[in-house]
Amino acid sequence: MTSSLSLAWPAPAKLNLFLHVNHRRDDGYHELQTLFQFIDYCDYLDFNVTQTPALTLHSTINKVVPQNDNLILKAAKSLQTYTQCALGAEIYLDKRLPMGGGIGGGSSNAATTLVALNSLWNTQLSQAELCHIGLKLGADIPVFINGLSSFAEGIGEKLIPVTPIEKWYLVITPNVHVSTAEVFQDPELTRTTPKLSIDSLMHTSWHNDCQKLVAKRYPQVANALAWLLEYAPSRMTGTGACVFGEFEQHQQALSALAKLPAEMSGFVAQGKNISPLSLRLAQR
User: Fold this and answer.
1) What Å distances lie between residue 269 and 39, 40, 168, 227, CA to CA?
2) Which residue of the set 14, 74, 167, 272 is catalytic?
3) How far is C-alpha 38 from the geometric centre of its chain's CA atoms?
C-alpha cells in the first residue's frame, strides 16, 4: 500500500477585533457584524494520504472530544462524500490553541482539513465549494478557508476582505471552556446593536457585545480583562474565553507577558491579514 505524507499545515487562530450582535433571527441564529483577523499562532496538522477510504485522527484531544463529534473528521468525511473521493487519510493534530477560547480552534482545524485534503486528494474544488461544505459544519469555517482578514455579516458567512493594522497582541487564555451555544441562548445577551456600514465600523471604537455577559458568568475572564486593561486596549474575542490586548510593538507585548500573574497563561502573536494556511497552500 502506498502513502503520501504532507507535514505542517497550519490551522491559525483568529481574533474578533469587534463583535456586534444585531438581532436573533427566526431560525434561532443571530445576525452579526464582526471583524476577523488571523494571528500567527496555530495548531498544526500532518496528513498521510492512504489508498483506502478510512479516516483516522491521531491527537490528544481524542480523550476529550469523541471522534464522531470531531470537526476534523467531519470535514474530511464531508469532502469525501461531496467529491466521491476513494482516498483516505491518517491525520495527526498538534493541538496548541485552547478549546472553547473563542479563537476558532475547531473551525480552523476543519478549514485546514478541507483545504489540505482538497489539494492532497486532488479533488479540485473551488474555494467557494469548500466554503459551501464548511458552512454546514460551522459559521466561522469559511473565513479560514478564504484566508483573508474579513468584515463579516449574516451569521458570519458574508465576507468582505479588509486590511486592519497587523498589530501585536497579548492573548490571555483563561482556563475555562465557554459554550458559544450557551452564550447565544442567554436571555441577558445584548442583541440590539444597530447595523452600521463597514466604513463606519472601521472608524469607530470597537467592542464585543458578548463580553459583558461572559465576564459576568466567568470570573476568570473578568479577571483576565481587568489585568490586561492596565497595559493596553483590551477586549474578549468571539464568545470567549480568550481576551487580547493590542500593542504597536512586539517588545511592548512581550514586556506585558513577562508580568503575567502566575495563575494566568497566555502568548504573544502578530495579526496577519493573509492566513498562514493560504501561504502554506501556495507552497504545494
Assistant:
1) 6, 6, 6, 18
2) 14
3) 8
10 Å CB burial of residue 113 (0-12, 13-18, 19+) is buried
**CA–CA distance, 26 with 49 (Å, rounded to integer):** 42
Which candidate in 63, 69, 136, 140 is catalytic?
A: 140
215-241 pLDDT per residue, tens: 999 999 999 999 999 999 999 999 989
Catalytic: 140? yes
Give the whole-angstrom CA distance, residue 212 versus residue 221. 10
- How would you classify the pairing of strands 88-94 and 55-58? parallel
Q: Is 69 known to be catalytic?
A: no
